[in-house]
Write a structure and sequence with these properties.
AldOxase/xan_DH_MoCoBD2; 16 helices; Ald_Oxase/Xan_DH_a/b; 770 residues; six-stranded mixed β-sheet; globular; alpha+beta; Oxidoreductase; seven-stranded mixed β-sheet
């Protein structure tokens, strides 16, 4: 589906709502989000907007050093300041002193050693935010500064930075014949930088103590039940005495509300007996939350004389930073997809994730897959150049399809239309060349008033093919639970799937409308009193939570139809709900759904749990993932070869989506993902010289703006339904993030002839010496 088609359908839907036609509903239409008006008017409740009677303000003291031994902590001066109600350190954590979603190795507060710049040491509650910050600064910490380990390659030989050692995980993947060799060999060394999620809203939260000695946390959590369990362990409480209420999430391309913010918040509320609020500054946000893993990759590709891959050898080293977080999962994805969506009969991959004194790395959209995509696509460009083949043609000779086998030994059973995607972007018309006219100066890489000269501009065209997994990471239980209630003709969905911008609440409404034929569907706010739905990563809620909503709605549908079927002497299978009416196969019955629901209260609860997976074994083999999604992108760039500036002219995208559930929402998710990839390719790199975060703000950290966003052409959406997925749909936002940096780097290579082996691309890497 093209952008034009999406626009037409959206416009038609809007037109229908103003005329005599009923409003659009159900799957396949561009139903607008229910919270659109509140967000545009500024009335949507985010955590930073919350208030409570008797409110105190929190501030966290963070380490100025990446590595140091703590000799002493003196809180006396802070405690004596007027307005200060509490000061807490590691000595005031009543429960488990360490936490982490992947592996419990990160302290709530540093006690004897600080392991990264910005690590939490103490927290303060005071009657004014300025007082809280001044009191935190008044805590005196004596440090013995230690040399930081900042190079992940040095971590193997360095003294242990943590009681668990420096090696978090090692995966040696072995697939095929180790002695296999090709007629041609290309090698490369690649580095991927540290990308920050840079959420629109910095971390914030409100903690309110309860009369029973428990606490309620109002947060923008993306995994409320997982966060509740970690918080309860730290607070020394049973999980049922800690409640997390999810507030509005101001965007999430990674985990939101890092525990280094929320755990001090809850502890302060429990200590003072008062509500406590924390609103992080942008600097604190950069220092506190996890980032994309910086990665070092070494590759060797073997191919025959026709360009068909024979063997891939690779070494992948992920810099996890100070703590494990989700590094094990990221490494598994990197190793599993190290060869990309290509048929590779022999693969030998070594993957490591190690601790350093750099800022922590963790979950971020496309983790692991983005880094290897940039490397294996660079290798494909090198191979095409060595063979004298068109880069698209070389890729076409090697693409995988349904039924092929990954290097992990897992058979690709889901739709994998990689060749179709590549053909679509390859054959899409190229954008026109820029003119050397003054009125078109904005077309130059330097932009208006830029330093570039038209005569120095070279255009390049490049390709990227990417893949991601959707569910089931190495045996993870991906269950989700949902309840659908109908009363007085209004349906309500209760599901703890957090709306992070991926559109779940809109999808849930569409599912219920489709199944039950009701117009008004409400989605209840999320809290931990509801059954768990799991984390919001990788768009998994489209599958597992959407599937749970569908099953619950179908159970309610059966309850609704059974009395009518019994009355007319037929089975419920002979009745259908279409356009808000219940009709029978023979036309005898035709009644409005609203009339059939009158006076009834129906409800049902259901679960969705995809088929189980398994961890990778000692040779990197195993059916580790449930589903996969694929994307092809053709990038067109203009490069000023004298100053190295790059402008992305156009990104043509073809994606495997399974089924389009909401055209406008799907297009927006793809465009957002592609644009985030532009940042990873050209501008975003959180610099940490000697482990110190430099310029932790949105001035020093260069996010792409609207002026940097290229034309994004969605040239094809392949709707080949995955039979094991509810509705046959796949999540769509991660795979374009993974693919677009590789495509942009490929295009810069084509324009300059330079190797471009580092992301983000430095200007000097695009300069050509004549």
């Amino acid at each position: 589906m093209s952008d034009e088609a999406t626009t037409v359908q959206t416009a038609q839907a809007a037109e229908d709502t103003t005329g005599t036609q009923p409003p659009p509903r159900g799957l396949g239409v561009s139903l607008p989000a229910a919270d659109t008006r509140a967000k545009t008017e500024g009335t949507f409740p985010y955590a930073a907007d919350l208030w409570a009677e008797g409110l105190l303000w929190a501030a966290v003291l963070r380490s100025p050093h990446p590595h140091a031994r703590i000799a002493s902590i003196d809180t006396s001066h802070a405690r004596e300041m007027p307005g200060v109600q509490a000061v807490i350190t590691h000595e005031d954590v009543p429960g488990t002193p360490v936490y982490e979603r992947g592996r419990a190795d990160r302290p709530v507060f540093a006690s004897d050693v600080v392991r990264h710049h910005g690590e939490a040491i103490a927290a303060v509650a005071a009657d004014h935010p300025d007082t809280a910050r001044m009191a935190a600064a008044a805590v005196i910490v004596e440090y013995e500064v230690l040399d930081p380990v900042i190079d992940p390659e040095q971590a193997f030989e360095a003294e242990p930075l943590h009681p668990d050692g420096n090696l978090i995980r090692h995966i040696p993947l072995r697939h095929g014949d180790p002695d296999a060799a090709g007629d041609l060999v290309v090698e490369g060394l690649y580095r991927i930088g540290r990308q920050d999620p840079a959420p629109i809203g910095a971390e914030a939260g409100l903690a309110v103590p309860r009369p029973d000695g428990g606490v309620e946390l109002y947060l923008a959590s993306t995994d409320p039940h997982g966060d509740r369990d970690e918080a309860a362990a730290a607070f020394g409480l049973e999980p049922d005495r800690v409640k997390i209420v999810v507030t509005g999430v101001p965007g999430a391309t990674a985990d939101r509300e890092d525990q280094s913010f929320r755990l001090p918040l809850g502890l302060l509320a429990l200590r003072t007996g008062c509500p406590v609020k924390l609103t992080a500054t942008r600097e604190e946000s950069f220092l506190g939350h996890a980032h994309r893993h910086p990665t070092l990759l070494r590759y060797r590709h073997h191919a025959d004389a026709e360009g068909r891959l024979v063997k891939v050898e690779a070494q992948i080293l992920l810099d996890a930073g100070a703590y494990a977080d989700t590094s094990s999962d990221a490494l598994a994805a990197a190793v599993a997809f190290a060869c990309g969506p290509y048929v590779v009969p022999n693969a030998f991959i070594e993957g490591w994730a190690v601790r350093t004194n750099n800022p922590p790395s963790g979950h971020m959209r496309g983790e692991g897959a983005l880094q290897v995509c940039a490397a294996y696509e660079a290798q494909m460009d090198k191979l095409a150049k060595k063979l004298g083949l068109d880069p698209a043609e070389l890729r076409m000779r090697n693409v995988m399809a349904t039924g092929d086998v990954l290097p992990t030994g897992q058979t690709v059973t889901c739709p994998a239309p990689v060749a179709e995607l590549l053909e679509a972007v390859r054959d899409h018309p190229l954008p026109p060349l820029p003119k050397d006219a003054p009125e078109d100066e904005w077309l130059l890489p330097g932009g208006p008033e830029g330093a570039g000269e038209p005569g120095a501009v070279r255009r390049g065209v490049g390709y990227g093919l990417g893949m991601v997994h959707l569910l089931g990471g190495e045996g993870a239980d991906e269950v989700s639970t949902a309840t659908v209630k109908v009363q007085d003709g209004v349906a309500t969905v209760l599901c703890a799937a957090v709306e992070t911008g991926q559109g779940f609440t809109t999808l849930a409404r569409q599912i219920v409308q489709e199944v039950l034929g009701v117009d008004e569907v409400r989605v209840a706010p999320v809290d931990t009193d509801q059954p768990a739905a799991g984390a919001g990563s990788r768009g998994r809620h489209t599958w597992v939570s959407g599937g749970a909503v569908e099953r619950a709605a179908k159970m309610v549908r059966t309850q609704l139809l059974q009395p009518l079927a019994h009355k007319f002497g037929m089975s419920t299978e002979l009745l259908q709900i279409t356009d808000g009416r219940i009709t029978s196969y023979d036309g005898v019955l035709s009644t409005p759904v609203a009339e059939a629901l009158q006076g009834k209260e129906l409800w049902a609860t259901a679960q969705c749990r995809p088929h189980p997976t398994e961890p990778l074994d000692g040779s990197g083999q195993g059916d580790a993932y449930v589903g996969m999604a694929f994307c092809a992108i053709r990038a067109v760039v203009d490069v000023d070869i004298e100053i190295g500036s790059v402008r992305v002219v156009e990104l043509a995208v073809a994606q495997d989506v399974g089924r389009v559930l909401n055209p406008a929402q799907l297009a927006a998710r793809i465009e957002a993902g592609v644009t985030q990839g532009v940042g990873a390719a050209l501008t975003e790199n959180l610099r940490t010289p000697r482990g110190l975060v430099r310029h932790p703000d949105l001035t020093g950290y260069a996010l792409p703006t609207a002026l940097d966003a290229p034309d994004i052409e969605i040239v094809k959406l392949v709707e080949e339904r995955d039979v094991v997925a509810p509705f046959g749909a796949k999540s769509v936002s991660a795979v374009p993030v993974v693919t677009s940096p590789a495509a942009i780097a490929s295009a810069v290579r084509a324009a300059t002839g330079r190797p471009v082996n580092r992301l983000p691309i430095r200007p000097q890497a695009a300069v050509v010496t004549v």
